[in-house]
Amino acid sequence: MLIRKNISLDDKYLKKLQPFLDANDGNLSAAVRDTIEIADTALTNHRSIDEAIRFLRENPAKEELSDTIKSGENIIINKTILEWLFRYTKGRLTDEELVNELINPFEISNMKDLEDYLNRIFKNNQWTIRTSIKCEDIQNPESALILLSNATINSREFFAQLIADFLARWKQLDVDHIFRRANSTQISFKKNLSVSLNETMPGIRKHFGYLDIICKELDDNTEFWTQLMHTYNVERYNLVTLHRNQFETFAAGEVPNPTKILERLCKQSVNEMSLPDLLVYFKKMYLATQLVKNIELCLEPGKESVTIFHDFKNEKVIHSLVEYFSNIFRENGTPFVTSSYSSMIVFRFYEEHEHENSSGIYGMEEFTEPDFISGE
Predict the structure, then answer these.
(1) What is the pLDDT along the chain (376 residues), one digit of tens a residue?
(2) CA distances from 278 to 202, 267, 290, 324, 354 (A)
(3) Coil, helix or strand for 188?
(4) From CA 62, how far away is CA 354, in angstroms rounded?
(5) Are 148 and 195 in contact (CB under 8 A)?
(6) C-beta of residue 271 within 8 angstroms of C-beta of residue 328
(7) Can you tell me the distance from the alpha carbon of 151 to that of 130, in angstroms, rounded to the nearest whole number?
(8) Where does the source fall among the domains of life (predicted)?
(9) Are 197 and 166 in contact (CB under 8 A)?
(10) Are strands 305-309 and 173-180 parallel, antiparallel or unpaired?
(11) For residue 253, which phi and psi values (nearest 5 degrees)?
(12) How far lies 353's CA from each of 102, 147, 361, in Å?
């Protein structure tokens, strides 16, 4: 039975019908019949048109993924195992080869290309991550904001580092800030031209590679570090880390000058540091050495001070400790006075004009509470 009906189609649908028209020599009726046959076949195994369309759109990507699994390019891994790997490799920098494995630089010329590329490979590999990139100049951005959404925080962290490594090498962008939320990770980037291509950007090392040096040391000197950590654990961290030369000086009954060691760690001369920066570095270094129990800082301008807590009882040892730390602060050039108590040493810093009678004098020791200091 032949029924004739008029239908209305705009250009959008006519363009979609074009392959069928070409196959049927321009016969619109035949093209519509072919379209109906395909739709009927698609709906046979699906409950709705939307479900059928979604399946047809996603199926090619799944077939492509299946082909890569068959070829050995990809493997199937349990989600729990993969999440464990993501979690326990955090803090380690990835190799450049791995970055290039995920992001092919020859397919990307600007930030828009990168966004499309990432969303495509995430979809093709069923990673459920969605990427959004915002920047003013897509060719050579001075800054950029990247949002990774969905998936788990550990998987987003892993791919965020790969993206950061790519942008560092090809766009000279460094990580400025990272905002981690339950369902998204937002990374802000800024241009950094001071780092060579062979060096790791400081922001990347800070946010993604904070354990890299530690892990490499553990890999290279496993036996040493295992024994050291075991010893620290058994002794409840009641051990002191001291440079060999400084130990020799102390053993000879003299007081060493630790300034050079601090400068090597900070990569800056003490006399070039601002007082607040010096105090912050000082606290980090000497808490790590376990030479003292705790260090408290006051960084209020004009009232800077360092309060050092210790558990030494011998008065000579305490005097040596005061002189030891004073060597660093003298090098900085800011005048100071010291006060020593039974288990506490305080360095107070001041401007020259505040102590007219103390001009040029550093380390004026005021030992109070002598009854609590043992001379044994």
Answers:
(1) 566 667 777 788 778 778 888 888 888 788 888 887 877 776 777 677 777 666 666 666 566 667 777 787 777 888 899 999 999 999 999 888 889 888 988 899 999 999 999 999 898 888 889 999 999 999 999 999 999 999 899 999 999 999 999 999 999 999 999 999 999 999 999 999 999 888 999 999 999 999 999 999 999 999 999 999 999 999 998 999 999 999 999 999 999 999 999 999 898 999 999 999 999 999 999 999 999 999 999 999 989 999 999 999 999 999 999 999 999 999 999 999 999 988 999 999 987 655 544 433 344 444 444 333 333 3
(2) 20, 12, 18, 15, 21
(3) strand
(4) 76
(5) no
(6) no
(7) 9
(8) Archaea
(9) no
(10) unpaired
(11) 85, 15
(12) 62, 53, 12
Amino acid at 246: Q
The answer to whether the CB of 119 falls within 8 A of the CB of 143 is no
Q: Judge whether 360 and 350 are in contact, CB under 8 Å.
A: no
Which region holds residue 152: left if phi is over 0, alpha if psi is between -120 and 50, else beta? Answer: beta
Structure tokens at 207: 């946010």
Residues in CB range of 54: below 8 A, 6 or more apart: none
Boundaries of every domain in the chain: 12-70, 79-208, 240-372
Kindly state the tokens that stand for 104. 């092919």
3-state secondary structure of 77: coil
Do residues 339 and 368 touch, judged by C-beta distance below 8 A?
yes
Quickly count: other Cβ atoms within 10 Å of residue 70's Cβ. Answer: 9
Q: For the chain, how many residues are written?
A: 376
DSSP state of 183: S
Torsions phi, psi of 339, nearest 5? Answer: -130, 130
Say how many Å lie between the first and final Cα of the chain, rounded.
117
The pairing of strands 305-309 and 294-298 is antiparallel
Helix (H, G, I), strand (E, B) or coil at 348: strand
Segment holding 179, helix H or strand E:
strand 173-180
The whole-angstrom separation of Cα 337 and Cα 361 is 9
